[in-house]
Design a protein that fits this description.
CATH class of the largest domain: Alpha Beta
Low-confidence stretches: 1-27
Structural class: alpha/beta
Shape: globular
CATH architecture of the largest domain: 3-Layer(aba) Sandwich
Number of domains: 2
Largest sheet: 6 strands, mixed
Number of strands: 11
Number of helices: 13
Radius of gyration: 24 Å
CATH superfamily of the largest domain: Bacterial extracellular solute-binding protein, family 7
Length: 343
């Protein structure tokens, strides 16, 4: 009888301890993840995508998941982000596949000229290819040990000139222009310009020093990096830029199922919201550039027809070039066009 009472007291004591300890243990059970990107504070990718995504994940997990955020290349250069996430220096990064084109050459399909009219149209197609099970996820991202959490497509890129007038396509001849990828390089070559590859943070210095004459980029990028522009085209489509928010696959595999669910759901929200905000902001950024004295140039109908004709073959040339390298370029282009058409 005495032994039974002692046992009952022991069980009661353990129950009380467990009841008291569980909340404390839950408070201590924090999952801290390092997030890196290349953008300055205030950039639309931070405002509309990265920060809302982190906040939603933290809230959905009851504060269990916390983030250390390193914007503005604080954790490393943008071109090194893939290796940072592969090595575990960062858990999650905003990756520009064009900066690692030797490892992710097929994603350049999204950066071909004339494919999309706006960010939302482009990202709807891109996400079909980048998400789990998509062609790019299988052929480029999984082999590199990363998983897409959400994607972003910039609006159609324009031509930005530091000093030279760009009243007609002929003015582009001989200009040294910053390009993002091989696909964009092909487009510039068609216009008889010279493509120079570099990251977004490098553009300001290169244009200021005259190392390049201009760049192919969006109004938003030009504004965020204070690019010293005097002329910009309006209504053209010289390509675009694909961005991918990725987590290391090995890190993903260690996450609890409820955390994965929270991240996936937050990613879907980010995909819907960021493109709409980017499209709105692109229009306002053009107006801001004009207020700063930048001249907006709209080419004539005949010039636009000529340029569209020149750029029409770029997609097929890119696909053939990839095929010759042993990469499924034609398959990727076909899948992209199907995704754009909603198939």
């Amino acid at each position: 009888m005495v032994q039974r009472r002692r046992l009952q007291r022991s069980v009661l004591l353990m129950t009380i301890v467990a009841a008291v300890a569980t909340p404390a243990m839950a408070q201590d059970r924090k999952l801290l993840l390092r997030v890196a990107d290349q953008f300055p504070q205030g950039h639309f990718m931070l405002r509309y995508a990265i920060k809302p995504w982190m906040e939603q994940v933290t809230k959905a997990t009851g504060g269990e998941v916390q983030f250390e955020h390193y914007p503005g290349e604080q954790l490393g250069k943008a071109k090194d982000f893939l290796s940072l996430v592969q090595s575990g220096v960062a858990d999650i990064v905003l990756l520009a596949p064009a900066y690692v084109s030797d490892k992710m050459p097929l994603t350049a399909v999204m950066e071909l000229p004339g494919l999309f009219e706006n960010s939302c149209q482009g990202n709807a197609a891109y996400w079909k290819l980048a998400r789990e099970g998509g062609l790019l996820a299988q052929k480029e991202y999984a082999p590199n040990g990363v998983r897409a959490l959400f994607s972003t497509m910039y609006p159609p890129y324009q031509l930005v000139s530091a000093k030279r007038k760009i009243d007609t396509p002929k003015h582009v001849e001989g200009m040294k222009l910053r390009v993002l990828s091989r696909a964009m390089d092909l487009a510039v070559t068609k216009l008889k310009g010279v493509g120079v590859r570099m990251t977004s943070p490098e553009i300001f210095e290169a244009m200021s020093r005259g190392t390049i004459d201009g760049a192919i980029l969006s109004y938003g990028v030009a504004a965020n990096y204070n690019v010293p522009a005097r002329y910009v085209t309006v209504g053209e489509s010289f390509g675009s830029a694909a961005m991918l928010f990725v987590i290391g696959e090995s890190r993903w595999a260690k996450l609890p199922e409820h955390v994965r669910k929270a991240m996936t759901e937050a990613g879907e929200v980010a995909n819907r919201n960021v493109c709409a905000e980017i499209d709105k902001e692109e229009a306002s950024e053009l107006e801001n550039l004009k207020k700063k004295g930048v001249t907006a140039v709209r080419w004539s109908a005949s010039d636009r027809t000529e340029v569209e004709s020149m750029l029409l073959s770029v997609a097929n040339e890119w696909a053939v070039e990839m095929d010759k390298r042993g990469k499924p370029g034609s398959e990727t282009l076909k899948a992209t066009l199907a995704a754009r058409s909603g198939r």
